[in-house]
């Protein structure tokens, strides 16, 4: 649930009205071992938004792309990616590698797991490619370990929220 709330908040804040001039989009990627049920519910709940959006579903090497209907036009500046995969998978690491080589991408990472241990584990084991990007981590309870990790300067730019 926290990932869905964050995704909508980011979409709202990242939206900019000059897409027709500069043709740049904000892309919001959600990655989870079992993203498909959440994605289907999310797309159905916000079907008006997704009817106007470019979005893709990545699973087991397959990609399912969705584009806005020609009747609506392609003007919305938010794009969505749903990855049915572990954050540790080779395909996700490859995607992050591509992001790190894209000079046009301004990357921000938000880790939103309901389980504090899992979010801690994901944060501390991020690919070395991502260490230079700001990372916001949701911690429902204690964030002491992450705050100690930040002080070591080994883990990049980490911000803890939610505790």
Question: Please, could you describe this protein's structure?
Answer:
By secondary structure, the protein is an alpha/beta fold. The chain has two domains: 85 residues, no CATH class; 77 residues, no CATH class. The strands form two sheets. The chain has a four-stranded mixed β-sheet with strand order 1-4-2-3, with helices on one face. It has a three-stranded parallel β-sheet with strand order 5-6-7, with helices on both faces. The longest helix has 13 residues. The protein is globular, with a radius of gyration of 16 Å. The mean pLDDT is 83.
Rounded average pLDDT: 83
Structural class: alpha/beta
Strand proportion: 15-25%
Order of helices and strands: HHEHHEEEHEHEHE
Order of the strands making up the biggest sheet: 1-4-2-3
* Helix proportion range: 25-40%
Number of helices: 7
Q: Please describe the biggest sheet, giving its number of strands, its sense, and whether it closes into a barrel.
A: 4 strands, mixed
Radius of gyration: 16 Å
Q: What is the overall shape?
A: globular
Q: How far apart are the termini?
A: 16 Å
- pLDDT < 50 stretches: none
Q: Using DSSP, what is the number of strands?
A: 7
* Domains, number: 2
């Amino acid at each position: 649930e926290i990932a869905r709330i964050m995704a909508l908040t980011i979409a709202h804040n990242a939206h900019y009205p000059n897409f027709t001039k500069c043709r740049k989009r904000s892309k919001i990627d959600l990655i989870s071992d079992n993203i498909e049920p959440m994605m289907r519910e999310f797309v159905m709940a916000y079907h008006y938004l997704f009817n106007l959006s470019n979005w893709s579903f990545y699973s087991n090497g397959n990609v399912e792309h969705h584009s806005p209907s020609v009747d609506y036009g392609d003007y919305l500046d938010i794009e969505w990616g749903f990855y049915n995969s572990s954050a540790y998978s080779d395909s996700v690491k490859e995607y992050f590698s591509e992001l790190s080589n894209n000079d046009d991408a301004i990357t921000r990472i938000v880790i939103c797991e309901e389980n504090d241990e899992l979010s801690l584990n994901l944060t501390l084991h991020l690919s070395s490619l991502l260490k230079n990007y700001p990372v916001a981590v949701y911690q429902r309870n204690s964030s002491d370990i992450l705050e100690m990790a930040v002080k070591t300067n080994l883990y990049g730019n980490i911000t803890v929220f939610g505790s």
